[in-house]
Amino acid sequence: MRSSRRRFLKNSIYAASAFATGTTVSSCGLFSAGPPNDPGTNNPNPNNPNVSPTSEPVNNSSDRTLYLYGWANYVTDPDLFREFTKETGIAVKGESFDSNEVMLARLQASGDSAQYGIIYPSDYMVTQMIDLDLLTELDKDKLSNLENLDQAFLDPSYDPGSAYSLPVSLGTTGLAYNSAAIIEEIGSEPEDWQFMWEHIDRLRLTLLNDPREVMGMALHTLNYSYNSDNGDELQAAFERLQDLKPAVSKFDTYAWAEPLMAGDYLISMAYSGDGLNAVRQNPDIKYILPASGTSIWTDAVVIPKTAPDPEAAYAWIDFIMQPEIAARMSEESSYGTANKAALPKIKEELKDIPAWLPSAEILAKSDRLVKLPDEVLQVYEGYWTRLTTGLG
User: Fold this and answer.
1) What's the rounded Cα separation, in Å, for the pair 11 and 348?
2) With pLDDT > 70 as the criterion, what percentage of the chain qualifies?
3) pLDDT of 50 strictly over 80
4) Which DSSP category does 56 fall into?
5) pTM score, two decimals?
6) What is the CATH number of the domain that holds 323?
7) Residue 73: pLDDT band with limits 50, 70, 90
8) Model confidence over 229-278: pLDDT tens digits?
9) For a designed S-S bond to 117, which of 63, 73, 306, 313 qualifies (C-beta 3.0 to 4.6 A apart)?
10) Structural domains in the chain (count)
11) Contacts with 184 (C-beta within 8 Å, 6 or more apart), sequence order
12) Are 115 and 107 within 8 A, CB to CB?
């Protein structure tokens, strides 16, 4: 149900920065999403932005190639690929997906799936892949850098004991807003989701193009679970979103940033990496985690059972768990990291943004999306279709 999220826009990371002020909180927090996809001039197939740059083989005497399949920010860094090839002699090729569901459908339907050695699913999809017997149980003895990960993230509810997956990036969903424009229009700034309903008649906003996140947010504002399977609660969440529709300009996951900066939109529901990237580009943009809580999520790395070269896959996982590599990945994407050894190596200007490391108080009020039965997902989809097509 989660629509596309986290695309890679390297240029945004190094744009002029303006940071929110505040106190840095515990390193055990959860954090962010990545930016929009920019295949760049190095893309070997410019007509297919989902095919990432490949590594240049260096001393690749074994002619081994590792194929990655993941969110674009994990599979489109040619410099990272070259470093791995230099260390191991194994070339790397990457391909991106736009949603967990697209990834799963391809693995189940296409013979090409047997080529992938590494996959980057999100938390709830890890559970589903385990249930479908698609994943290799990890041999932790083959991972010399495992100790770099924070133990707090190594026994998640979606994969007890991290038997089949290891956490890579951690994120939230929140509100990005144009502080100058919203103060001029409303006279105050948002602190929680309720702000949108309180000012329906004066706001121009966007919501994510993601049924689980948007329905979950509405459920949350009614004090229900993000993962509700109760028919009456889902009906109430749908009606609450219908009430908000006069203020909704668009259901959009990515294209909100420039109009928000221009003041065309006042608020955009956003994944945290996208929101933080906007903050880093424009001093008028702020990104907050709503005071009543939000959704939290993790992207993980797994080895499919069909991996043609499991040893190459283990080598890649061990490589990205190096502190320097994990820190660079976090800085370039505004993601958070589960790698505790990487935290001291991440620039303070990023860590000083409060929403990058949410407080324990916010986390305690938040939910993690979980796998729901198919019949419940059909109810979500039905309401989503009615909401996005304008049907009552």
Assistant:
1) 20
2) 83
3) no
4) P
5) 0.74
6) 3.40.190.10
7) confident
8) 999 999 999 999 999 999 999 998 878 999 999 999 999 999 888 899 89
9) 313
10) 2
11) none
12) no
Q: Which two tokens stand for residue 288?
A: 């907050």
How long a stretch of residues is the chain?
392
SS3 171: strand
Q: Which CA distances in Å does 12 have to 31, 255, 356?
A: 18, 14, 16
My answer on whether 76 and 134 are in the same domain is yes
Question: Which tokens go with 334?
Answer: 């505004």
Using only C-alpha atoms, the chain has a radius of gyration, in whole angstroms, of 20
Residues 31 and 162 in one domain: yes
In a domain, 77, yes or no: yes
The DSSP code for 36 is: -
Residues 288 and 330 occupy one common structural domain: no
Residues 179 and 268 grouped into a single domain:
yes
End-to-end CA distance of the chain: 21
Has residue 9 got a pLDDT over 60?
no
Dist. CA 67–CA 333, nearest whole Å: 21
Q: Using the structure block, give the residue that is written with the tokens 């990237």.
A: 277
Q: 70 and 43: one domain?
A: yes
Phi-psi region of 46 (alpha: psi -120 to 50; beta: other; left: phi over 0): alpha
Read off the DSSP letter of residue 262. Answer: H
- Amino acid identity, residue 11? N
- Write out the residue range of the structural domain in which residue 146 sits: 27-170+298-344
Residue 101 lies in a domain: yes
If asked whether residues 105 and 39 sit together in one domain, one would say yes
